[in-house]
Amino acid sequence: MSATAFQSSLCISSQKPSFSPTNSQEPNTHLSSKPKSLLHKHPLYSSAHHNLSLQIKEKILCLEIMGIDSGKALSLNPSLHTTSLDSLNSIISFLQSKGIHQKDFPRIFGMCPKILTSNIKTDLNPVFSFLSQDLNVPENNYRKVINKCPRLLTSSVRDQLKPALFYLQRLGFKDLEALAYQDPVLLVSSVEHTLIPKLKFLGNMGFSTAEAKSMVLRCPGLFTFSIENNYKPKFAYFKEEMNGDLEELKEFPQFFAFSLEKRIKPRHIELMSIYDPPDLDLEWKWNSFRQKLSARIAFFYQQRSKEITRPARVRASGARLRVENDWHSQCQQSGRLLDH
């Protein structure tokens, strides 16, 4: 299949571009205005790069027209230098046959350019079989799962996806739909180097194995947080500055999902500055983190209610705290960062 046909099938919706026989470095007049603006600035059209082979130039052109950063792709996946345009076209056609849209390619290939040099039979096909047979994902939902986690397409079913699924199921992850559509990143996480160490670190904090398992089941995102950049600094602040205890984190493991500098510290400092009465100190010692926050916000509202035109409704629900009304908006605008 020629480079021209490849461009036509992938990059141009209706008109077929062709390279000038006299100067292949000239941009095609049939290309849309957006691709042309990208290509005019690309090394393909620079005389300083006249030594690039025609095949590489055509490959760069096709990648750029699809919206893919060719420089980044070639850098992260050197195999692209030698792969043929026919091979690239086969990959694209295969993914489209699985329901992936052309508009999805920039993000998918931008995150995982290795996909462009995958083997359809041994690399890609097994992944879609895994989605169908092991996660019960219907064919019309392949796109949703792949867009959520493109790294699935670069993961070995035998060495990565099935071992991760087995480990997660043993921990208690029974909802396959949630794993497929909400937390597929767990399936591409190394059991040995990511999942097990994170669970062990929760144990090192003082939680029992059963408590740690319960926490990750309630908040799967705990498996994705960095020990050095997330757990350690947030846990230190929680213990030293907030005088918290493990029971609070057991009830509210989502604490680790909030930014320490942008959410936890500002919220804690603000609430401490507006709440001082001693009568609730004892209550705070045994209330959960969210109950503490609810009590402090409620007190803040009581003190400021005369300044608000419409009453606020503050409630603590089983899953999260909500503050709803004009008062919420005023707090946001004033930078109080009390929204949850």
Automatic annotation (TrEMBL):
Domain of life per record? Eukaryota
Where along the chain is composition biased (Polar residues)?
A: 1-35
User: Among its keywords, does the record have Zinc?
Assistant: no
Return the annotated region ranges for Disordered. 1-36
Q: Which SMART domains match?
A: Mterf
Q: Which UniProt keywords apply?
A: Transcription, Transcription regulation, Transcription termination, Transit peptide
Which InterPro entries does its entry note? Answer: MTERF (IPR003690), MTERF_sf (IPR038538)
> What family is this?
Belongs to the mTERF family.
Protein name per its UniProtKB record: Uncharacterized protein
UniProt organism field = Hibiscus sabdariffa (roselle)
